[in-house]
UniProtKB/TrEMBL annotation:
Pfam families: DUF3105. Keywords: Membrane, Transmembrane, Transmembrane helix. InterPro entries: DUF3105. It comes from the Bacteria. Residues 14-27 have a biased composition (Basic and acidic residues). The keyword Transferase does not apply. Signal peptide: none annotated. Residues 1-10 have a biased composition (Polar residues). Residues 1-27, 56-100 are annotated as: Disordered. It comes from Streptomyces thermocoprophilus. This is DUF3105 domain-containing protein. The chain crosses the membrane at residues 32-53. The keyword Transmembrane helix applies.
Length: 223
């Protein structure tokens, strides 16, 4: 039984490491393309500015109009304690703030820029809209309130730092001291030593729920 779990864990780590290498290669290619396309972009901006001035008043794009869709649905709790959101989790990009029906949010419209989630530990709150984009990329988001034990916060931070496709930040609006979130899924845990922590990471870091598996978790914002 133990060897099977070890093999599964090793395979997941190898898969994540492969995704990380592919992401780094993609970022190198993107830098070359950005340099080559910068001249074209400047010209396009000049033309685009004229178009925006003419069309902005009639635009119905969510980021331009300032409206954003809310996720709709309800929680269903499984026998393993994981809550699954049953309902609509829209995936539109918006520059507006979004009023999510759950805290922390596990999906819905979000900012075009994700929060860095390459084992990133934030000491200040992360914007919901950026974190939700990270979840869309297959990240697990660890959040905690000031009621969480300092030892648990430090141990969870150490775990996050060595795990690609994860991020951690304080979050005072949640009901429990420590919450783990993935796209469409969420679980409270009693502390860093709770076995549910490892299980949640193994299941949802780049798990089957990921809308955009392998998408970047670096080069985001608020680092």
């Amino acid at each position: 039984m133990g060897s099977g779990n070890t093999s599964s864990s090793a395979a997941r780590k190898a898969r994540i490491e492969e995704m990380r290498r592919a992401e780094q290669a993609r970022e190198r290619r993107n830098r070359v393309l950005v340099i080559g396309g910068s001249v074209v972009a400047v010209a396009a901006l000049v033309v685009g500015a004229v178009f925006v001035v003419k069309s902005q008043s009639g635009s119905d794009d969510s980021s331009a109009s300032g409206s954003a869709k809310n996720a709709s649905g309800h929680w269903v709790t499984g026998s393993d304690g994981v809550k699954t959101w049953e309902g609509d989790l829209s995936r539109n990009h918006t520059g507006s703030s979004v009023s999510y029906p759950m805290q922390p949010p596990v999906g819905g419209d979000h900012n075009p820029v994700w929060a860095d989630c390459n084992g990133t530990v934030y000491t200040k709150p992360v914007k919901n809209e950026n974190a939700v984009h990270s979840l869309e990329h297959g990240a697990v988001w660890v959040t905690y309130t000031d009621k969480a034990a300092k030892a648990d916060v430090e141990a969870l931070a150490a775990k996050v730092k060595k795990t690609p496709y994860t991020l951690m930040s304080p979050y005072e609006k949640q009901d429990a001291p420590i919450v783990l979130s993935a796209w469409g899924h969420q679980r409270t845990v009693t502390g860093a030593s709770d076995p549910a922590v490892d299980q949640f990471f193994q299941t949802y870091v780049q798990g089957k729920q990921t809308p955009e598996p392998g998408a970047s978790c670096t080069g985001g914002t608020m680092q």
